[in-house]
Specification:
This protein is mainly beta and 53 residues long. It is 0% helix and 25% strand. It binds iron/sulfur cluster (SF4).
Length: 53
């Protein structure tokens, strides 16, 4: 079982770094980026540390 990092909440269960039973990331830090030239809302941002399970 991965150790949850309680400073990084996340509900992306299809990510290998997700804690599974708890909605937290298991990494010590993550990188957040964007796929837009001019991000205007939360949907414009991405977790760049995502790894498919
Ligand atoms: S790497 Fe990103 S998407 Fe994956 S569990 Fe951590 S915060 Fe969520």
């Amino acid at each position: 079982m991965e150790t949850p990092n309680r400073s990084i909440k996340c509900n992306v269960e299809s990510c290998r770094n997700h804690c599974g039973s708890e909605d937290y990331c298991s990494l010590s830090c993550i990188t957040v980026g964007t796929h837009e030239c001019n991000p205007t809302q939360d949907a414009c941002t991405d977790c760049m540390s995502f790894v498919k399970k």
